[in-house]
Amino acid sequence: MIADATISGSEPTARGEGFVFMSQVRATLFSRTADPADLRANPGARAELTGCPWHDVKAMLREVGLRPTRQRMALGWILFAKGDRHLTAEMLYEEATRVKVPVSLATVYNTLHQFTEVGLLRQVAVDGSKTYFDTNVSDHHHFFVEGENALVDIPNAEVMLDRLPTAPPGYEVARVDVVVRLKKKD
Q1: Where does the chain show beta strands of DSSP type E?
Q2: Contact by Cβ (8 Å): 180, 154
Q3: How far apart are CA 94 and CA 97, in angstroms?
Q4: pTM for this one?
Q5: Which residues, at least 6 apart from 4, have a Cβ–Cβ distance to it below 8 Å?
């Protein structure tokens, strides 16, 4: 049952007695005064949490202009209550099915794309046919472990890009995604 899950590392802090901050549980929630356009421009914005993941997901959805429907709430809870994660739509669908959330695979895809459009998730394409959704929307890169189909964050200091190509006239670089493929040594 969904309500039985716990969040590790969620203790009160000096900044707000009795509040848990998302930087501790490594999921992303934004401030109550934020405009969705500002959130996309500043994905590092954080808000104080109440300590109730269900309430926090509801507030997060409202803050970015999404109506907190039961299905969005349930999928958001599954996505964000466990911290930074990399999931495909199929993986999220399987998790939802295991905890008895009545949702179709099409609804999972639609919800993931809606969350991505408002800046709650980051889409990472690994192959032409495989897309992961990352709950950590900060600028970072990934290892992809072939054979295990696992996507793992690379710390920012580990990847150095010397120079980017000049964007064509009328365009700007939106972001750079580096996916380093790994395989087991023989």
Answers
A1: 20-21, 48-49, 86-87, 122-125, 131-134, 141-145, 150-154, 179-182
A2: yes
A3: 5
A4: 0.66
A5: none
Tokens of 182: 């790994």
Give the residue carrying structure tokens 């295991």.
Answer: 98
Token code pair at residue 104? 């179709």
**CB 39 within 8 Å of CB 119:** yes
Please check whether residue 53 is in contact with residue 29, taking contact to mean a CB–CB distance below 8 angstroms: no
Q: Which of 35, 81, 90 is nearest to 58 (CA)?
A: 81
> Which amino acid is present at 28?
T
**Alpha-carbon Rg for the chain in angstroms:** 17
How far apart are the C-alpha atoms of 33 and 43, rounded to whole Å?
14
Identify the residue whose tokens are 């010397």: 162
Q: For residue range 5-58, what is the model confidence (pLDDT) as tens digits?
A: 333 333 333 333 333 323 223 333 333 334 444 444 444 444 445 556 677 888
pLDDT tens digits for range 134-153: 998 888 888 888 888 888 88
